[in-house]
Design a protein that fits this description.
The protein is an alpha+beta fold and 787 residues long. 36% of the residues lie in helices and 20% in strands. It comes from Mucispirillum schaedleri ASF457.
């Protein structure tokens, strides 16, 4: 093996150096283009470093070749353990680390240090965009126009179809001899042709293409597909500190290798060789880590808000606003109310003043921009009036963006994450437990800081992840702050044929400080009937000899609460493509009732169908919910509108009887720009100064200028570089939310062209001028620090 050639080929594969003339619109395609540019700088720097090695002192070419061969044998052997197709260095091919966990570190329990702990897991759905590039004298055109959209965590099989007519021989132009158009589809029945991932089809295709271009081979074809697929998983992981990690591993490797040579032959030449291996390796590590730090910084930067809107019930509007609404008669809003069956077909706009319609939820997306801002302008200290906030985003991005605004303000966090089934995420390299641990750990660290000093954290899991969850929570909060291991016992599904039927989940309760909210509750326990099915109806308990007799006892840590059945009133009928679980409202009622007060904020960043926030609203708590799937709009928002309207379901009836049911309210919802949104606008700039950024967000470079001790920010300059900021309807509330999250201050007042932000003061939205003392905070949005 020629180790120098193989190592450079590996780098070429990772940084997609063979790709030429790349075309496509997605953020990931743009990142591929940026990586291929960076690859040229990597090769240039490596060649320059080679000239500084001791081999140049050798007297003959043969001696030089032998010397460099030994150098690259060590270089290849070392980097091959950590470099992989994702481009992110980690324990990808290290035999000593065959389990999910790494070796002892800092004298702590080995189980706390899993392979991917120092990584960010970038959860994205498959993002396949049409893509064109040249490689090895062939032009590849990948057409994705026939792909069916992926929904939620749905698993889709993709097929690569080529038709004879899509193979074209070209007149030689810049070395390109042939063009191949490949249709990428999610249903192989929709188009005829060769499915080139099928061996027989691929062999037949190669026979056809070789008639046109005789040098074509299967390896090139599969390599092209591999390059195309990069757009969906190129940043599966991002290392938090690639330089420190690789340098540490290099020291370990060289120590082990030197130890072997001491036994055999340890001469001045050997010492020089190890010096040179280290010199070249450190330079390569610097190059790899520099790019990885750019990606990490883009991932960590606060994200901008887009598509910001409000839902407000009619009872919170002034008479003047209601009159304007009646005069404008927005058709979209009328159709929505009718669709939700909030109003009859005979309903007229003048009926809006009737008492029975005072809880109709008005969505500002359905009205004019001028009316939207007239409504918002009616509120002083508007953020204090907001009952709840919905954020459509990856939950790490959301938590990282709002953490300044809600630092130590959340009394209760409940999360019900995927249960580590193996099908919930696209785990790679069989690191299922490790990757799941990384996902949870990265989010828990931010959650802990957002909890108040009286805060509680509930993690809901099942048998597939409860042991991992406890280890992570012990690491984040401390084992001494475990308050309860709650067992939720439910009754649903069939009987186990070869095992005991699994009929419970585990809920781990931790406190942030040990001084936490805990409102004691008592439950009814029927005598002579164990377990007590407290949520079953009286009729369901007939025949159990216990009817009418019960005792009041303190709530134990085993909860008998029925699951949500498809016949229950609170059941949400989902489209067949959604694979979401729905927790019973009574379960969340107990958690929220015990661990929060009427002035508390409740957070759920794995929102699912939205049970947590709906129960929190009904109980009069403020709340924040985060979800990234498309069901954000089709399931979660309709459900909260029904809660605002007062639809009776779940715990509504019992809360109403106790006169504790909240109906109506004021809700804010918005999206955050995604990691891919930033990448789509990114550009690569070569810098000699290693502290300068390599990748920068082009769209935001137009926004800011300096004048004296002031910062001038003009978001209008974004134009079509940023979707929705160009739209007058959304523009100001998007900017207001962006600045509020960024600085961590509440919005006091907002109207069409003015924002009053707590602490900072009044801001003219058409001509934003901020004191230069806020520059470093604002720079987080635009220029990220890579070191």
């Amino acid at each position: 093996m020629d180790f120098q050639i193989e190592f450079l080929k590996k780098l070429e594969d990772i940084y997609l150096g063979r790709i030429k003339n790349l075309e496509g619109n997605s953020g990931y395609i743009n990142l591929i283009y940026i990586k291929s540019q960076y690859y040229q700088d990597i090769i240039k720097t490596i060649k320059e470093t080679e000239q500084l090695l001791s081999y140049s002192l050798a007297t003959t070419n043969k001696e030089q070749q032998e010397y460099i061969k030994h150098i690259y044998e060590k270089i290849y052997t070392f980097f091959n353990k950590y470099l992989n197709d994702t481009g992110t260095p980690f324990y990808s091919n290290v035999k000593v680390y065959n389990t999910n966990y790494v070796q002892l570190k800092d004298n702590k329990d080995v189980a706390l240090f899993w392979k991917t702990q120092d990584l960010y897991y970038i959860k994205t759905e498959k993002v396949f965009e049409s893509m064109t590039f040249d490689m090895n004298n062939v032009k590849y055109v990948f057409d994705t126009s026939l792909i069916e959209r992926q929904i939620a965590n749905e698993k889709i099989t993709y097929y690569y179809i080529i038709q004879n007519k899509n193979i074209k021989k070209l007149n030689e132009q810049q070395g390109i001899l042939c063009e191949v158009c490949i249709n990428v589809v999610s249903n192989k029945d929709i188009i005829d042709g060769y499915n080139i991932l099928n061996k027989k089809d691929c062999d037949n295709f190669l026979k056809e293409i070789k008639k046109i271009y005789s040098l074509y081979n299967k390896d090139d074809l599969y390599d092209a597909i591999k390059k195309f697929n990069k757009q969906s998983d190129i940043d599966y992981f991002i290392h938090k500190n690639a330089k420190e990690f690789l340098n540490e591993q290099l020291d370990i490797y060289l120590f082990e290798e030197i130890g072997k040579d001491v036994v055999t032959k340890f001469t001045e030449e050997t010492i020089n060789r190890y010096h040179d291996v280290r010199k070249l390796a450190i330079e390569i590590i610097e190059l790899i880590a520099r790019f990885e730090n750019e990606l990490k910084s883009i991932w960590e930067k606060p994200k901008m808000v887009k598509n910001s809107n409000y839902i407000i019930t009619i009872d919170m509007l002034s008479v003047d606003i209601i009159d304007i609404l009646i005069s404008e008669q927005p058709r979209k809003q009328y159709d929505e109310w009718l669709n939700y069956e909030f109003i009859p077909k005979s309903w007229k706009w003048i009926n809006l003043k009737d008492e029975q319609y005072k809880y109709l939820p008005l969505d500002t997306k359905n009205i004019s921009g001028s009316l939207k801002y007239k409504i918002l302008a009616c509120f002083d200290d508007i953020d204090k009036h907001i009952d709840g906030i919905l954020v459509k985003s990856d939950n790490f991005q959301a938590l990282n963006t709002i953490k300044s605004k809600y630092n130590e303000k959340i009394d209760l966090i409940y999360i019900d994450p995927p249960f580590n089934t193996g099908s919930d995420f696209g785990y790679i390299d069989n690191f299922q437990d490790s990757t799941w641990s990384t996902i949870i750990d990265n989010r828990l660290m931010i959650c802990k800081n957002m909890l108040s000093n009286y805060g509680s954290f509930y993690l809901h899991l099942d048998y597939r992840a409860n042991y991992l969850g406890r280890l992570i929570l012990n690491n984040v909060f401390g084992s001494d702050l475990l308050i309860n291991h709650i067992v939720w016992q439910y009754f649903m599904g069939g009987k186990g044929k070869k095992e005991y039927a699994k009929k419970h989940d585990d809920i781990l309760l931790y406190s942030k400080t040990g001084n936490y909210i805990f409102n004691s509750i008592k439950i009814k326990r029927y005598l002579n009937f164990i377990p007590a099915l407290e949520d079953q109806s009286k009729e369901a308990q007939n025949g159990k000899d216990n009817i009418g007799y019960y005792s009041i006892v303190a709530c134990p840590d085993v909860w008998d609460i029925s699951s949500v059945f498809n016949m229950s009133a609170e059941y949400i009928k989902l489209a067949s493509e959604y694979k979401l679980t729905q927790k019973p409202e009574r379960l969340l009622e107990r958690i929220i009732g015990v661990s929060s007060n009427s002035d508390s904020i409740v957070l759920d960043c794995f929102l699912g169908t939205g049970t947590t926030i709906n129960v929190a609203h009904k109980m009069g708590r403020k709340w924040i919910g985060v979800e990234m799937g498309e069901h954000f709009y089709s399931v979660i928002i309709p459900r909260i509108k029904q809660t605002l309207y007062g639809k009776i379901s779940g715990v509504s009836e019992s809360l109403k009887k106790e006169n504790n049911l909240k109906i109506g309210g004021f809700v804010k919802y918005y999206e955050l720009e995604t990691y891919e949104d930033v990448l789509a606008s990114a550009r690569y700039v070569e810098h000699n100064n290693l502290n300068d950024i390599l990748i920068w967000d082009e769209k935001l470079s137009y926004v800011i200028t300096y004048k004296d001790d002031k910062i001038l920010i003009d978001f209008a300059k974004l134009g079509d570089r940023y979707t929705n900021f160009q739209d007058e309807h959304y523009k100001y509330s998007d900017i207001a939310e962006t600045l509020s999250n960024l600085f961590g201050y509440d919005i006091i007042k907002i109207n069409k062209n003015m924002l009053l932000l707590d602490t900072i003061g009044e801001i003219d939205m058409d001509n934003i001028i901020i004191d230069a003392t806020y520059l470093n905070t604002f720079k987080k949005l635009i220029w990220w620090d890579t070191y």
